[in-house]
Amino acid sequence: MTVYAQPGRDGSLVTFKPRYENFIGGGWVAPANGNYFENPTPITGKTFCEVPASTAEDIELALDAAHKAAPAWGKTSVAERAVILNKIADRIEENLEMIAVAETWDNGKAVRECLNADIPLAIDHFRYFAGAIRAQEGGLSQIDDDTVAYHFHEPLGVVGQIIPWNFPILMGVWKIAPALAAGNAIVLKPAEQTPASILVLVELIADLLPDGVLNVVNGFGLEAGKPLASNKRIRKIAFTGETTTGRLIMQYASQNIIPVTLELGGKSPNIFFDDVNAKDDAYWDKAQEGFTMFALNQGEVCTCPSRALVQESIADPFLDAVAERTKKIVQGNPLDTDTMMGAQASNDQFEKIMSYLDIGKQEGAEVLTGGARADLGGELSGGYYVQPTIFKGNNRMRIFQEEIFGPVVSVATFSDYDDAISTANDTLYGLGAGVWSRNGNIAYRAGRDIQAGRVWVNNYHAYPAHAAFGGYKASGIGRENHLMMLDHYQQTKNLLVSY
Ligand code: NAD
Q1: Under a CB-based contact definition with an 8 Å cutoff, are residues 341 and 330 in contact?
Q2: CB 3.0 to 4.6 Å from 156: which of 44, 90, 235, 456, for a disulfide?
């Protein structure tokens, strides 16, 4: 067990500045209006730094820098860009623990997740796209004896990116790595709840990129996000956040006829067929673990398996077992590597989850475990901690239909295969889903019949860079990860040449 020292205390791996500026054109630039906002750590609820409350003026400045940098960056060879992306990956890897502590302090998540998942995945993302851009081939088709068609991949130019607070670094890197690989310059706006860790990352890698290729402007949605997303000087807007905000982003983009990538909300079903607990073995253990994934990252995951559908015939023993397992989830200081569940990312999010705990109870759902705030005492008593909670109810309840984005799973039972699939698909969303069955045919069929962009079969919450990720229905448009992501950051030039 390691307990990392809190930032600001002796022995801490990370030193935050008391005040950050925007990162524009390769340097730190104060916001034009001179306004900053306070950024608390969810671990204790205390402010640890100030961050610019930027406005349209700062966005314009960042776009100036990006436009200055974009032509030369877009003309670098793919080999040069791949070398830079690999160097960025190496730099992050060399500083993995420091970045992990920064992310934990800013977001409240358990440091073990940052050390073992978030940051290693971010590193791999840069390496993956360094390889992907070199592997991408252009096209040449012979049209007739005299004429050939050449196809070239060209960068879009300057792109806007807006990210949420649940995986600040990983969501940032999911957007930054492919955009850079494809030769674009970037203006990125982090979420106001978690503005600091991404600035620590940018400071760490700044010398590896030409000035102006990557710019970060902090601030709130309407004041800084809207002037970016609606700006005539971007050639694409990539957004991850709530479905309601995604609708606005699409409206802004429509004015400028630019492409959008929207990674939005979810209410993912996790289906357990009746053969999962047939015997006490490694599979049964894995399936229980798959159920408790609702509490991973404090449930603040867009693909959180927040609806568990369990076949009636096994419901009692299954739910007894998973409730016991859920009670063993260790809550505590997020900087302690033994801690499995940390703090919710903000007080607003904490309050929202608490209100859904009330809604679930008022709707008549049964609380199998949890259902309240977690009081961890001492220094943590001001932090935003919630008990992992299992509700049992039915799919018509609000707790089954609305995204809570917390460590709360709503369980319903189903009678047969058709009932399972129709209940799973009875939602606005279509981002993720899980299927658990020892029967390969059932698992395969369910995987195909569920309307979701990612279905995990006999596993959950794996995010390899080379597996396409994105939503059906109100969960979004476009995909992230995978080679196909490059298409979202490039345009195709066709040259039809007669000789
Ligand atoms: P949010 O929509 O409130 O905010 C996301 C970002 O958009 C923030 O940076 C915010 O400042 C900005 N923003 C807000 N209003 C804006 C506007 N009018 N114009 C431009 N920018 C604006 O979402 P959130 O609460 O930060 O994130 C949680 C949501 O994100 C959940 O719904 C979750 O499911 C979703 N999410 C989806 C994925 C995915 O890959 N599909 C991944 C992570 C999170």
Answers
A1: yes
A2: 235
